[in-house]
Automatic annotation (TrEMBL):
The chain crosses the membrane at residues 21-42. This is Pilus assembly protein. The keyword Transmembrane applies. Keywords: Membrane, Transmembrane, Transmembrane helix. It comes from Pseudoalteromonas piratica. Residues 41-112 form the Type IV pilin Tt1218-like domain. It comes from the Bacteria.
Amino acid sequence: MRILNSTFSSFKNRSQSKGFTLIEVLVAFIVLTVGLLGTVALQSNAKQASYDANQRSAALALANDIVERIRANDTADIVANYSKTFSYLDTPVEKKCLNTRCSSSEIAEYDLYQWNKALRVSDNTGALANGTVCISPTADGDGVNLRVVVAWQGRQKIAESSASKAVTCGTIANRKTVVLDSYIFMRSA
């Protein structure tokens, strides 16, 4: 048996596979495109989740801040002084209490002024997008049950749980909430 090793025999094989590499390149390009689109979508979702996580951290820090301010001003007038609901649309009324002697109600006004400024992201002084705050202290024997609810507008569209829907603070689309419950013992006079 004799093997032909001529240029005509290899030419015959080439003509049968003509265009095959072009199809391989097109398939590889489609696979690469789908992979890149998936990566871009993943990056977009990660950015939204990072934004929402930063907003949640800011809301928790703000809620802890007002609770500590209320603890520091623990007089019998806590319920009257701190029972408030306000949003990012409310313009805080400036109250100065740094270089002057202030009563507990004036300190509460100052605390709420400072805290409302920290909430307002619209004028570049605060941290939460479209934030709403509900502070509800209720007297209970020797102290005060305090509930601070901070609601804001998140970027991710995640369905609220039934427990989250039961919280009635803020009516924003894509509402996210942080609820902080605390108990403050009253100082004896």
